Amino acid sequence: MRIGIVGYGNIGRGVEAAVTQAADMELVAVFTRRDPASITTASGAPVIAYDEIVSMKSDIDVLIICGGSATDLPWMTPELAANFNVIDSFDNHANIPQHFANVNTAAFKSGKVGIISCGWDPGYFSLARILADSALPDGDSYTFWGRGVSQGHSDAIRRIEGVKDARQYTVPIEAAVEKVRNNEHPEFTARDMHLRECWVVAEDGADKAAIEEAIKTMPNYFEPYDTTVEFISQEELGEKHGGLPHGGSVIRSGRTGNNYEFNNTVEFTLNLDSNPYFTGSILACAARAAFRMYEEGQCGAKTLFDVPPAYLSHHSREELLAHML
Amino acid sequence: MRIGIVGYGNIGRGVEAAVTQAADMELVAVFTRRDPASITTASGAPVIAYDEIVSMKSDIDVLIICGGSATDLPWMTPELAANFNVIDSFDNHANIPQHFANVNTAAFKSGKVGIISCGWDPGYFSLARILADSALPDGDSYTFWGRGVSQGHSDAIRRIEGVKDARQYTVPIEAAVEKVRNNEHPEFTARDMHLRECWVVAEDGADKAAIEEAIKTMPNYFEPYDTTVEFISQEELGEKHGGLPHGGSVIRSGRTGNNYEFNNTVEFTLNLDSNPYFTGSILACAARAAFRMYEEGQCGAKTLFDVPPAYLSHHSREELLAHML
Fold first, then answer.
1. What digits encode the pLDDT tens for the residues B38-62?
2. Are residue A288 and residue A255 in the same domain, yes or no?
3. CB count in 10 Å sphere of residue B143
4. Which of B100, B124, B256 to mutate to test the interface with A (most CBs of A within 10 A)?
5. What range defines the domain where residue B289 resides?
6. Taking CB atoms and an 8 Å limit, are A133 and B313 in contact across chains?
7. A96, A134, A211, A228: which sits with the fewest CB atoms below 10 Å from its CB?
């Protein structure tokens, strides 16, 4: 299948690697709102201006949209669904119903398929939640993120006066994870589940105490958590905190039995050296599913909840039955 | 939806609990090849002779078949698929393609849906394998079982002369699990991955040394593993080893990145106080999916690979989008 990528940031690069490594996919082009001449792709795929995208309609089977959830995807995914099968990794949980409705309207009109929110959360973590919830309807689900870099929280620190650079790690609290695994069904505050660990490069002469105070009291981002702040040099930040690792666990603890006498846990855990390359990899297999659903006549907005898992796989039905079931 | 259960062993009881606890399901009857008068169900559901099952055709939306994979399911699932939507937990991995083909022929002819192999392995573990494999095509998958009771291995010990009763635990070797988690991509023998722990009640005057030797040298079952054998009283076996706990982990370690430079692990772990009640719970939600697929006009044999995860859930699409994605 012929794939186009919209946007060439971290996730766009992750999709590029996954698509070029997939034997059943061809990367046709990367589309950008920047000057195409300013971008050289890792794979050598051509870079084309976003404004020309509709002219490529007959050359592309699925577009994978790698924009931001805050300002790009809300308009871009519905706009592109008017002409293409589309995939995105929209991750603003509160706005998913509205985004789904917007993409659905556009994709129904065009007869195309649009699968939204195909990353790992939302995405694979959502699948873990629905599978665990379906098998254990009487129970409680918990999501722990990390240890990993939160780009949103890192950006929030960088906006503080006197901060030159920063990296924020979200760290699950092991004692909280253990309580869930032990079927204690705890009720947690945000502070009970995660720590926030900040590595900050201050500008020369900056007031470090003021920076630390500004971080720790920042509403929503840091105030509800126990937060540590360490100041380091730009060199050390680059050396020790240059990557974008992430991961986490979805754990559901639930009871079975005539009198709900049996405890059970279902746990799904990711450990990722690179968050964007793994996200890109999921987007690529979601594109495979979108194309198959389109080919069989489906249209409208979808999520991974609507996708038969076999459609994500490059293996044939015979291989799946013989080796993976 | 109106559910029938075929067979009232451990798994049948597990299905009964899950079905009677589901607000959208009604348990119509349990069917048995034993004397119906000899069985009293936990829920009070009527028990009907297997031979009368076809006469109930119009009263049942989905039959959940809870027979054994060795001798019951190979003929029973295709036979019943001629008249009913059916679910089973067929778990003889090597014979799955043949069983699938047999059920497919029958279900296509009748216009019914038959979802096979809906336990946790095959079943939910299979879903973990396909999701992990799809996102990380370059990698290796490993399945660890336990710590948990293997009924097949317990039965094998019971067949040894001088053995009154026995329980066998399959135990994953933690060092092997850690190697996989550390992205070492190990090549394992059976002995590297699991221990077999046996608790045996000997008959009075039995030759314990001979029993231990017979266990440890039993081909396929125990010879390929490091096996421990402990002799205990029937009372102690009942007290300490009376349950049927099980579980395990599917772990895939795979690489992403333009040069496959990033390591990642995807891990799915179950910890079950009761293997048959959890299996019964999955069978129940698979029945929900089968009925929905049948209602939309599908037919033939399916596996969980073919089921959109939303079909397993009792939640509405709106609830799923708002709270679970």
1. 999 999 999 999 999 999 999 999 9
2. no
3. 17
4. B256
5. 2-121+276-323
6. yes
7. A228
